[in-house]
Amino acid sequence: MFFNKTYQWMLWDAANKCLPLLYKLKNIGPNAQLIKVHRQNSTFVVSDCHSKGRHLNAALEFIQLANFFSNGSSTILDYIDRTQNIYCRDNFNGLLLKAATVIDQDNITSNIEIEDILSRSHKESGVAAFAKYHYALFCILRERFNFTVKFRNARGWAGKLGNSSLRLGYIGIMQRNEADVGASASYNRINRFDFFDILHQGWKLETAFIYRLTPNIGYKNLKGDFFAPFHIYVWFIMGGICLLLTVVWMCIEYMVSKKTDQFTAVNVIPVNVVGAICQQGMDPSPMGISSRIISLTTFVFSLIFYNYYTSSVVGGLLGNTVEGPSTIDAIISSELKVSFEDIGYYKILFQYNKTPRIRKLLEKKVLPHRGPKDLPVYTHLEDALPYVKKGGHAFHCEVVDAYPEIAKQFDVSEICDLRVVFGLLESELLNFVIHKNSPFTEIFRIVMRRAVETGLDKRILKQRQPEKPPCSNLYTVYPVDLTGTFSAFIFLAGAIVSSLVLCCIEGLFKVQVQVFKCQLQ
């Protein structure tokens, strides 16, 4: 672990007998800074020593710098600087390295199959988008250093064997140093820093639920509820004010009628109050100045509230802001049926993550039985999008995988109806890793840094991370469903029932009056 760019070693081998010792050291690699000095006749020969990988049985390479007494020390130091940089050690001459990757498909073992799948530009089932990005980074290293590779494919990224500490999948392969370099990615976890060196961080993992906003998702749309513009206590206050206006008006009319001997029917005043609030006028007109002041202020009061009310309703119907479930908890509480991409890290999530939110998601959305016509819990993107398009389904996947397929299958208005809900998995930069204290760590890091500086990394990201298809509509009018109009229908039904009850009471009262008259006669 000390044969790296931090330490400069000098082996003073006057008798030139230390070669067997050097061949036993398996940690000498392309990062080693080792100067060997041995005696040859009357001079000392200074040589740079390194290997492309002794643990891979690569040969030790000696580059003679100078004879100690024939050149000055400054010339020797200049030669050392030249021979120990990357340009003198970047050709591995076809050295065979082992690499690990993740393809969640059956019977994928050969290099030809693995590289063919990872190099395709379109979405592949069982292959994460970030796996193809890190494979592209791996190809940069392979072309730069001229090595060959033997791939080892894992079906998943992590996991443990039973109750043991043996790690499975890609993380286990890299941790046990069974691969020299990875062609996939790793999450940032504190317990992994002891096992991996990070070569590069470029891909930000973003997974989310994708669903289409339709009336059949069963989520309360407040902008379609005709009682929603005002809070419930505002409605109660307005009702109390109307009742108070009616009582005060009746009292005023009663006092005015005592003075003028002109009495307004009591049952007309409540109708006039309703007419003033609805801005429909009143008949007969108020007689006194006080009654006219009340009617005028009632008109102004209703006008102000009417403006607030109509602007809120119209703005809600024409607005294109986010509606529907916008959090993971809202997704769980809604009537949306959820499915997940059939890929390893979701199964690991449900197996090892026991947080309250995950348990609630399992109980309400994952474990309940599904019919033969329902979308399975784990499915592929191309099978899930038709259900998402129809509505009532939410599909969780890496968003950059879904965007190209959405652009193909959805029209403009349907794209505007799509909603994306993040939060189930952490959104963070993934690590391009190599085993801890690997002889390739520093030399590979240099190439990754050069890829960032020259814009090559940005170009790969642009190819692998397509943007969400744009919504071209200026606004979308969402129809008011039964949930939004339910309160209005209840109000109307209550009025109808009340009128029927009163009608029956009036009829019974008239019958009783007729019976009483007949008895008197």
From TrEMBL:
The chain crosses the membrane at residues 232-252, 289-309, 486-509. It comes from Musca domestica. SUPFAM superfamilies: Periplasmic binding protein-like II. This is Ionotropic receptor 75a isoform X3. Belongs to the glutamate-gated ion channel (TC 1.A.10.1) family. The keyword Membrane applies. It is a multi-pass membrane protein. Its main location: membrane. Keywords: Cell membrane, Glycoprotein, Membrane, Receptor, Transmembrane, Transmembrane helix. It comes from the Eukaryota. It is found in: Cell membrane. PANTHER family: IONOTROPIC RECEPTOR 20A-RELATED (PTHR42643), IONOTROPIC RECEPTOR 31A, ISOFORM C-RELATED (PTHR42643:SF32).
